[in-house]
Fold these 3 entries.
Entry 1:
Amino acid sequence: MSGYDVDLFVIGGGSGGVRAARIAAEHGARVMLAEEYRVGGTCVIRGCVPKKLLVYASRFRAEFEDAAGYGWTLPQSAFDWPTLIANKDREIARLEAAYTATLAKAGVRIIKSRAVLADPHTVRLANGERVRAAYVLISTGGAPSYGDPIPGLEHAISSNEAFQLPQLPTHVVIQGGGYIAVEFAGIFAGLGAQVTLVYRGENILRGFDDDVRQHVRMDMEKHGVRVLTGCRIAAIEQAAGARFSARLSSGNELAADRVMFAIGRRPNVAKMGLEEAGVEIAKNGGVAVDEYSRTSVPNIYGIGDVTNRVNLTPVAIREGHAFADTVFGGKPTAVDHANVPTAVFSDPEIGAVGLTEAQARARLEQTDIYRAMFKPLKATLSGRDTTVLLKLVVDGMSGRVVGCHIVGEGAAEMVQLAAIAVTMGATKADFDATMALHPTIAEELVTMRQRSASYARAAAE
């Protein structure tokens, strides 16, 4: 594309931006990518990957306890937070280097700098250099939100800081009820901290199936996490030493070594030059895009969390790949955001895909529910007080399985495979015709024969 310094300039080196840059380069485009922090973005550097490593660490204590029921006698265990963080940091550095090497091998030029739009075809770097690009891709992701200002908010940490704490806090107060809040509650509690989760809604994990929400909350409370709903943190005060006092809207006060806010994330759209370039912002606060991820400016696209559509790493990667194929590969590709599987690496773990019961009952003429809840085999000898929940949501008219929800060990792994069946349009009869694999938790997905409930859609008033 003559007249331009590059064919594509990618602003943001997270999972989506990296995939888009690499595929575009493989299609023959001249690509430049700017990242002001570290290549890999939220997921690799301070999100999914380090979070999952901390989740693994937090589960060992329960494994040590459960081992006694299976005849194992173990010496007194001890946990060292600095060792975990140092090992985690080494792995993240390795992954960042791998991402960088992959881009370089594909011919992508990486610029370690903040980049903003000067006009639809011009990107300005922090040093003042300007780059002319035929196409610009915005993939700047999101950042933690702290909500409305409150007294003492400067004392709160987000998930970003939680990954780099010098020591494991003994008492933690977390505000929030979504993925991040619930996962970090499990991490800190599993590593031995006293945890209180504060959420303004009536129950945690808004957007998930109601049975899942109730089941997870029950198990979390059973295993030591205190969950306070219907209130929020109104102020944070520094107490003696390094401790803090979190005053709640209910009037109660909670003492803690750390107060963490995990109330959601906001798209990184501020001071990006978007308004000057004519890029519209959607009502959801993200960059407004069409089904091909194109913004209101024809040569500027947006993918991933900055669009605030479905804020999950695999979605950003799929969107990035589809963008590159559309613009540089001659294969117009729109990403289907239906039936996106998701997991919460909480304690217990959640895996879900498709419609919740409430969503199905609002959309379908008839909704059939199949539900199983039982004590997993592993817990029979360990004595651990836990139960597994499996739930299928079925279109009662067509028999198609439109939702699958699992709570328990390995839930995420099971749902990834169940998502194939749901995406293909498998029916309950297809599930029933599948031979069970015994003894497993997943076998219940193909052995639930008795309907738990059936609902006809209520007539519109």
Note: The chain has a mean pLDDT of 96.
Entry 2:
Amino acid sequence: MDKWLLSAEIQEFIISNANADLTKLALQKNKFPNADWTIILNQIAARQKAKTKLPTWFETPNIIYPGKISVEQTSSEKTGEYKSGLISGNNLIDLTGGFGVDDYYFAKKINHVIHCEINAELSAIVSHNIEQFKIRNIQCISGDSTEILKDLNQKSDWIYIDPSRRNDAKGKVFMLKDCLPNVPDLLDFYFGFSSNIMIKTAPILDIAAGLSELKNVKSVHSIALENEVKELLWILEKDYSGKIQIASCNLAKDSTEEFSFEYGNLSIPSYSLPKKYLFEPNAAIMKSGGFDEITNQFEVTKLHQHSHLYTSEKRIAFPGRVFEIEQCLEYNKANMKAFLENKKANITTRNFPETVENIRKKWKISDGGNCYCFFTTDTNNNKIVLLCTKLK
């Protein structure tokens, strides 16, 4: 770890350039001839990344950052806080500690947290940052997590794992067996040290594929931050063989939208033509696959089996975007020329044969404005366009 970064002069420079143009800054002469200018610039870049994603780190003095890629790949504070709400107990061991954001939040709920990190430099950085936060219940150990588990030889209430995809797995379908550590192969080993395991994966992993590789899964959580899916969480319990709960959560700026259902539960949705209001599920629900269950839990009907858009005569509280339908048009040349050609509109396609790009080009529709257009297919298999006003 580069402790010279902690000098008051360099820290003041890093903080004062929180909003600097890094391209221009890189062309300047090194203001600290005895220090590595590239490392200083990397600290500024990483700190800029942390401003909205990791505000606690950004606002705390004397924090040292790893490369900006590590900051990009780490959990956000909001998702870290969400994960901490799923655990309880006395001790947790994080086998893939990384920058330590999740452990910062685990430590608020667990008496003792062990942060394992195979990269010795990153482990030292996390240990230093923990001291700046004045956290006393996180222990950093550098090394291979499998060997650390063997050496400690102690039970934990929880094991947490965020496996990384192997470099030679690029281009392949994302499978857990292609990650390090190889969780499917090591599950029995892990259950020897804890009855509860939480696994974080990238949202690109298909839920059905993940369930086919894992066992004893109790729940799967699809987590979105401001309507962008960031991660999947897999909760495993030793010897569990009951029904699997699929939960989705969209962490919006001022609210949290939650939705859950049982995996494999055969839901029969109800369908109808467009009514007064249109509802579009948030990204976390879209990832969870609970499309048919929505009509059972909310007073809405579905436009089409594959459209994943919903409608109702009355406005209801809904986990996603809400629109008022101003007009429902048959998709044809006459209607497009009359209502949308050469106009400005926000366009979404759902179960429609043309792309947004093609629609814009074909009908000369510019982006933006207050009109929201959904190009979709109704329950009678007709191609339609819904002209809407956004309410939420």
Note: The chain has a mean pLDDT of 94.
Entry 3:
Amino acid sequence: MTAAAVASLSISCAPKKSVEEKLAEYTEWNQNFMEEYRNGIVQLADDEAAAEAYADSCYQVYVNYNKEALAQNLDNAVGLEALKNIYSELDDAELAAYLEKFTAPLDEQDSIFVAGIKESVTSRKGTAEGMMFTDFEIDGVKFSDFIGKGKYVLVDFWASWCGPCRREMPNLRAVYDEFHGDKFDMLSVAVWDKPEDTVQAAKEENIVWNQIINAQQVPTDIYGIEGIPHIILFGPDGTIVKRNLRGSAIREAVAAAVAK
């Protein structure tokens, strides 16, 4: 018998781990990972570029580990925890494929959670790139007051407490300063936030473009937004041009659009 065959036999004969053992290992890995990540970020506090590169690398490791855990445990509690950790990081096709096979036992709260994810996937299908915008109204202000009026409009769904949202502000200000005019405008829509906190943060971030305050869950439910910032570029007629823009991709999308 070859070494490979012996290895294969030893694996197949290994005792099967219980769900409890798998969950304990999964939980320990995530706890250790997050502790190592936090320590690494602290050590790189004085080097922003290195810290960003480190964070990106850790993010990929984290997502890949949880993807594998989800794929291998679609029928148990480990898969449920992995789904909770990375559902907002998966594209809709990938997420729908997992959900189609997902049979883990669910209590009432988890059933609501999974149903909510499925609803979000459905919402995003109706508001995908190439689809017409869906209107909503907050305190007498309509989304259509800004969208579909003949300009490209970059819409930033954000909140004052959201660190990544605040970190995108320099990119947004630069895009606004460069392109604002007859063909382009911007709109910030505050979600999941206290209005007074939004107003204060908007002053701190020097948001001089249009804003909708106190939108809460209304637009995020409509557009299937699971995490913020979520930045969408709308066309002059209200068609959704690009979704989920971040970093340098924001300027690239706007520059390509207004150049047409």
Note: Residues 137-258 form a domain with the Glutaredoxin fold (CATH 3.40.30.10).
